[in-house]
Give the backbone structure.
Amino acid sequence: YLARDLRHERPVALKVLHTELAATLGAERFQREIKLAARLQHPHILTVHDSGEVPAGGGPPLLWFTMPFIEGETLRGRLAREGQLPLADAVRIIREVADALGYAHEHGVVHRDLKPENILLTRAHALVADFGIARALGGGATGAGGGGAEDRLTATGFAVGTPAYMSPEQAMGGQEVDARTDVYALGCVLYEMLAGEPPFTGPTPQAIMVRSLSEAPRPLRQVRDSVPPGIEAVVTTALAKTPADRYSSAVQFAQALGPEVLTPVAMPAAATAPAPAAAGSAAAPMRFLARRPLFAVLLLGMAIGSGILFAWRGRHPVEDAGAARQLAVLPFENLGPEDEEYFVDGITDEIRGRLTGLPALRVTSRSSSSQYRGTTKSPQELGRELGVRYLLTGTVRWDRGDAGAGRIKVSPELIDAATGESRWQQSFDAAISDVFQVQADVAGRVAQALDVALSEPARRQLSEKPTESLVAYDAYLKARSYEQRARLNVEPQLMAIAGDMYRQAIAADSGFGLAWAGLARVSLYRHWRDAADRESRDLARTASERAVASAPDEAESHLALARYYEGIARDEARASAELETALRLQPGNAEVLQAVSYRLWESGYRDSALATMIRAAALDPRDPEAQARLADAYSASRRHRQADSAYGRAIALAPDQYHAYFGRARNLLRWRGDVSAARVVMAEAEARIGKVEFVRKMCVACFEWSGPLGGDYERILDQLSLDGFAPNDSVNYYVARAYRAFMRDAAGPGRIYWDSARMVSERISRAEPDRAYVHEELSTIYAGLGRRDASAASLRTAFELYRAHGDTSLIDSWRRFAAATNLLLLGDRAAASDSLSQVLADSNVYFVTRQSLAVDPFWLKLKGQRSFDEAIGGR
């Protein structure tokens, strides 16, 4: 409170402890620690004037203290207003705060709750407030004080500190807290001043602390590329999870922020090979990931039970003013005819997209929130399932008129999911020609209701019109509807209709960037199904380039061009540049974050990729494909137990989709070599999907599925028709049959299948000679046909292309694995065994394990080779 000191006739800041904390702490302990803090006299420390206790009607006394009243603002206030601070200001503030912390540490006082709210800015200087308060609450880790209160507070489930700035040792409830705890919090504050958000965010205090314990923060230069590498390195050191790896003191932290680290250094081209990753953190070639659906998304997935309950907070939810607001935009209800559903969905998506562009919001992805159309669940249930605090719902009525004279009525409502209460609601009634202004008004009012400050660029972004043509916009919304249904149901016919509708939108407005981006996506989809389709390849380039030229401020445009560069042009440098732009425009876009994660992973930045994919997954919690990719990442990171759980969640979300079953079975083989358990998973899939259809999809997914899980699948393969198989998929079908023939020593049928695969694969390679994985596939096919020289030449070409494209992570180990496969097919068992044992000796290789090799009939043909037997440990 702002109070008046009657004795000295001066304004003071008065703070009163909550009664529950005061009862647990005790007046004696509180007064002892406040007195210690009051002795701190430093230019950048806000000292304590006075303290005491007041009887509270028979209950525990109210404990209070006063500090000088400072005219100015807190660092939190400035961050709320500006988002990101200039580099020089941020470094100056941190140095002044570090100077204050260093002085306090020398006098035996650790702050323990440093955050922007406790840093006051006045006349361009920083003052640190509340010294000793967290120490009083948590017990003395340094200096005098004893630990009686510590024990009592721990027993109540309290962890002292603020989650977004709390060190891992604090979050775990440890009592060994020293100066390095403040160093960690100081690193969090510097990160937020530069990035515009704390290193870790989440919907609840528990979620934030779990992330701080198990994840790495997103690299600063990925968020803000103007940050010098030296500054990023200093922040990384300060945020080390182990105290011994941080700066030993705040003074050392300040010294590290010397002039030498402030010099900006140009970011290297994305195609340039990155610095070697730390041991144990190498990544895999992207083409390997694309071909085998590992989708190396990465997560630590630690099951942390630390007793950090935050019981009082749970009963009295308090929102951190600096935390990003978690919001889900549910499908708006269509009050008109059924054939207008596409229009209402489009309105919903546009509002969601505008809100996603605001850095202070974390908006759940469409694929998760759209599942709740017409839901009868309570706000509390929806909030829990989506992991959000707020829900935006609404209704839309479109009264069509003649010659574009219709009207639109949108009635949105913002609901607090924690309480079920309405935070804001309003109706907008406007001419249909003002539909874009209505969308902007709704998004702006939502931001206002959530206390989100809008910068001038953000206001301009909200009010931008994607097109001046309502005819073009209507065609675009129809196209989006068809595209979404096509992707959900895997229906190429619907995708073709979507392409036609995007063309209609472009015909009405040739400068409609989002329509060009949609046409680019449709073309990339066609190219994915048939790599030899030159028309779709050329159109993907034209459309994506026109999208960026027409709508340079739309993340969707840059994402489309990035996918063209990566998937067709094989220009990793340009793909990375486009993704960086898309991420800057919409840092909360789950689709962009996933794409960025893949590129970081492919480039060898495994920790950064992990942190990015975590953010993407958090924005899409109800999408089964996202959960399956997350599970693939766990498995790729050899966190097999967590992978199994994630696959289970994906299956529960979509029991009729095959990816998660296949991944779960493969994970069980890698983890424990458990063929029986893997077959149980496959049987479950067959029962829900249908055996023949499931096997067909297995062929599409990965031709190696048929190894240890063979059984009677050979008979089902015989029943399959190639009708409806895309060319790439038919190669997998033929190769699956050829592998099975090899394992049964059936050379005649095997040669037929290998040769059928060769014909299709060679046609694809002629159409796209620079696609590395096609040459790698051909090398295996040639090996199956006994063509040793052709196999070696194709393998060499493949890996030369991988290197040229920047796919260098684990490339040597993967080449050895491919060579071992080919050598075994050629009958050279000794060389194959030696090559395979070298792969297993590399602890970074995740795509093959001793457990899986020991039950795979293909590799068991090496049984008896000394190097193989030793590699699998005599299993």
In short: The first strand starts at residue 2 and ends at 5. The longest helix spans residues 747-767. Confidence is low (pLDDT under 50) at residues 136-159, 264-318, 700-706. Residues 71 and 546 are 52 Å apart (CA to CA).
